[in-house]
Amino acid sequence: MSTVTGDPAAFYRMQIGAWVKERVKRTPNCLQIPAKGLDIFVARDFLTARECEQVIALIDKDRVPSGLLSSNGDPEFRTSESCHLKMSDAINVRVQDKINALTGIQPEHGETIQGQRYAPGQQFKPHHDFFHMNTEYWEDMQRSGGQRTWTAMIFLNDVEAGGQTWFPEANVRVTPRRGNLLLWNNMDEFGQPNHYSLHSGMPVEAGVKYVITKWYRERPWGRG
């Protein structure tokens, strides 16, 4: 069993995890999804149709092939397109403020919102959003805010077929629905990386899928 003994950072992650969980459980229109070993919620109609359309237009304007923090040698691992949404656009500020208000996490702990587009056949194979601490990139992540805690993902459109977000270890599969927000904790109840948070963006079979993702860090993002 995981513990937090001797690890102040894990103790903080445990506290913020429990605090956000209880906050979201009390939020109207937010439902906790039954899941094995994972705290995960859906907030229905979190964005309006107009807000989704505005963000989609910005993703289409700036999208480029998606990258990976660390290459694994599989060219088919992540085949989507993505972009960092600019806070000079009022709609992005409005969306970010709504996400921050839902989680209650200090805004400075949040990374820049990333927009993503999946055409037919494109996917993001199973991965974790938390940082693996035995990697070359870990020291850089430590200096820029430390471990990722919560992930907020918003579906910007309905998808004709495919494109579900799948958590194979937690036994959860979520179909994209325009305006719905998906929120989950990448840490377990002890503030340690939670392997039940493994998830994938399944291949789109028909249509195009648009989402945005915002990650939160244990410390202010971009600072030591």
UniProtKB/TrEMBL annotation:
InterPro entries in alphabetical order: Oxoglu/Fe-dep_dioxygenase_dom, P4HA-like, Pro_4_hyd_alph, Pro_4_hyd_alph_FE2OG_OXY
Protein's UniProt keywords contain rRNA-binding: no
Keywords noted in UniProt: Dioxygenase, Iron, Metal-binding, Oxidoreductase, Vitamin C
Cofactor(s) needed by this chain: L-ascorbate
Residue ranges of domain Fe2OG dioxygenase in the record: 109-218
Organism superkingdom: Bacteria
GO molecular function: dioxygenase activity; iron ion binding; L-ascorbic acid binding; oxidoreductase activity, acting on paired donors, with incorporation or reduction of molecular oxygen
Transferase found in the keyword field: no
PANTHER family from the UniProt entry: PROLYL 4-HYDROXYLASE ALPHA SUBUNIT, TRANSMEMBRANE PROLYL 4-HYDROXYLASE
Protein known as: 2OG-Fe(II) oxygenase
Taxon lineage: Bacteria, Pseudomonadati, Pseudomonadota, Alphaproteobacteria, Sphingomonadales
